[in-house]
């Protein structure tokens, strides 16, 4: 029985196909930043990337599938975590990275566009969730190391601590419109570290 084809945008190609994918994803970034998801058009992506429309339609099929592949690529290209030797230092580094990403004119606009896309397209939402799961997994060891050093209680959930750092920053960015400045990033990191030390994120005992 033949295998079913993979969903559009999920196969990682090599050689010329990899260059085609990279060009299309870069074009998708530009289009999302300039016009948002609702105006994303595969024919326009083909024109921007200087590749054939048939190639774009065959590979991705829909704008939502293209954005899902873009999120996969973003997860793969994300910067590795910083290790400072202390929980406070590591969480500040995480908060500063989130702050830098969201306040950058290009990446901030891109994140707003993909969040908008995810709101109405399950496949894109799944890719967005996978992107953030990858980032949390990348940073979780800083909490595990803090637990081993005795900085936070045994049973502290690393993922919850990392979420606590970025959540108030995304709230300012996407919901409240309050200033997203360096001071707010520092406060988010300090609050998450203090709560972790107090046992707020202990989810298992023994």
Automatic annotation (TrEMBL):
Q: Which UniProt keywords are listed?
A: DNA-binding, Transcription, Transcription regulation
Name one molecular function that GO assigns to this entry: transcription cis-regulatory region binding
- The HTH tetR-type domain extends over 18-78
- The ranges the UniProt entry gives for DNA binding are 41-60
Q: Does the keyword Transcription regulation apply?
A: yes
Extract the PANTHER family matched here: HTH-TYPE TRANSCRIPTIONAL REGULATOR RUTR, TETR-FAMILY TRANSCRIPTIONAL REGULATOR
Q: Specify the protein name.
A: Transcriptional regulator, TetR family
């Amino acid at each position: 029985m033949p295998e079913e084809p993979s969903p559009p945008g999920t196969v990682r190609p090599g050689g010329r196909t990899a260059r085609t994918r990279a060009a299309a994803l870069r074009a998708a970034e530009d289009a999302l930043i300039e016009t948002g998801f609702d105006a994303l058009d595969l024919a326009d992506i083909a024109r921007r990337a200087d590749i054939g429309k048939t190639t774009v339609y065959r590979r991705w099929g829909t704008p939502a599938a293209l954005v899902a592949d873009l999120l996969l690529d973003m997860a793969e290209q994300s910067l590795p975590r910083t290790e400072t030797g202390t929980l406070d230092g590591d969480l500040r580094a995480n908060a500063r990275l989130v702050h830098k990403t969201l306040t950058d004119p290009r990446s901030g606009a891109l994140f707003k566009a993909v969040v908008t896309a995810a709101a109405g397209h399950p496949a894109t939402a799944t890719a967005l969730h996978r992107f953030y799961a990858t980032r949390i997994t990348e940073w979780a060891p800083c909490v595990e190391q803090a637990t081993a050093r005795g900085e936070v209680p045994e049973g502290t959930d690393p993922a919850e601590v990392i979420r606590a750092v970025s959540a108030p920053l995304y709230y300012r960015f996407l919901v409240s419109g309050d200033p997203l400045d360096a001071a707010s990033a520092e406060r988010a990191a300090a609050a998450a570290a203090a709560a972790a030390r107090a046992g707020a994120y202990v989810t298992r005992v023994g």
